[in-house]
Specification:
Pfam families: LpxI_C, LpxI_N. By secondary structure, the chain is an alpha/beta fold. It has helices at about 15-25, 55-65, 90-100, 105-120, 150-165, 190-195, 225-235, 255-265, and strands at about 5-10, 30-35, 50, 70-75, 125, 140, 170-175, 180-185, 205-210, 225, 240-245, 250, 265-270.
Length: about 280
């Protein structure tokens, strides 16, 4: 078993903490780069560098100093504006290698970042390689399930999200009664749900669908759901949430399912190919 320290580039949320805990439970040391403006965890008993994303020289130096050859990029984050990066000398060199990919979609940018990190001698590991139970397989996770109207909305949303993903825009959409209330772009799922709360129609609630982008690098930025997503779905008046089986990170499964059960929402891990676009 590999015992070299694991490097963790941590954004916000619980997943980075869980990755660190899993690595340490397996006897592997962890060194954490807590990315400023994103990482909101209380890191204890591990070496931590709190640094802005543009300070690549400091970040890479810290990882090398601690003997990290493998790294995990995980946690909630939003792409910084180009002018706000303020790269150091190493950051400027790496940014030149990333090139126009900085202005591509998230998957295109993250692929370029991963390639550059690999050229610097690091191996990128997916969070799910340490958290093997974090990607639910196909099936219904709640007592409530989608009715025919909800299944039709899911099929519509699958088609929409696949189209979005094909051009590297987003991973989610909200559909109610066949109407697309909103699609996810740079704002993220929580903001999408908040926006859709004011757009809901009378009658049966809609659905949120989250999918992996076609051809997406599954080491990076998988769709993620958790208790906060359920709370946003409740506030938006949705009937349930459907997400790609084996490709969506479910943060704190017990708490997420419990929140959905309490609200009467369904949680469905699906295979997108089983839902075809339906026409009236």
């Amino acid at each position: 078993m590999v015992r070299n320290p694991l490097g963790l580039l941590a954004g916000g949320g619980d997943v980075p903490l869980r990755v660190a805990q899993a690595a340490r439970a397996a006897g592997r040391p962890v060194a954490v780069v807590a990315l400023a403006g994103w990482s909101d965890q209380d890191w204890q008993d591990v070496p931590v560098l709190r640094e802005r994303v543009g300070a690549a020289g400091s970040i890479l130096g810290f990882l090398r100093e601690h003997g990290c050859r493998q790294i995990v990029l995980t946690g909630r984050a939003q792409r910084p504006g180009f002018l706000s990066l303020r790269p150091d000398a190493v950051g400027a060199r790496l940014l030149a290698k990333i090139g126009r990919a900085y202005f591509a979609g998230d998957d295109g940018l993250l692929r370029a970042v991963a390639r550059v990190l690999e050229e610097e001698g690091f191996e990128i590991l997916p969070a799910q390689s340490l958290l093997r139970d974090i990607l639910p397989q196909a099936g219904l996770l709640t007592a409530a399930g989608p009715d025919e109207a909800a299944r039709a909305d899911i099929a519509r949303a699958v088609a929409v999200v696949r189209a979005l993903g094909a051009v590297d825009v987003g991973q989610g959409a909200v559909v109610q009664q066949g109407l697309v209330l909103g699609v996810e772009a740079i704002e993220g799922t929580d903001a999408l749900l908040a926006r859709c709360a004011g757009l809901r129609r009378e009658g049966p609630g809609g659905v949120l669908v989250k999918l992996v982008k076609p051809g997406q690098d599954r080491r990076l930025d998988l769709p993620t759901l958790g208790p906060e997503t359920v709370r946003g779905a409740v506030a938006a008046g949705l009937a349930g949430i459907a997400f790609e089986a084996g490709g969506t990170i479910l943060v704190d499964r017990a708490a997420t399912v419990a929140a959905a059960e309490a609200a009467g929402l369904f949680l469905l891990a699906l295979r997108p190919e089983e839902f075809e676009e339906r026409t009236p």
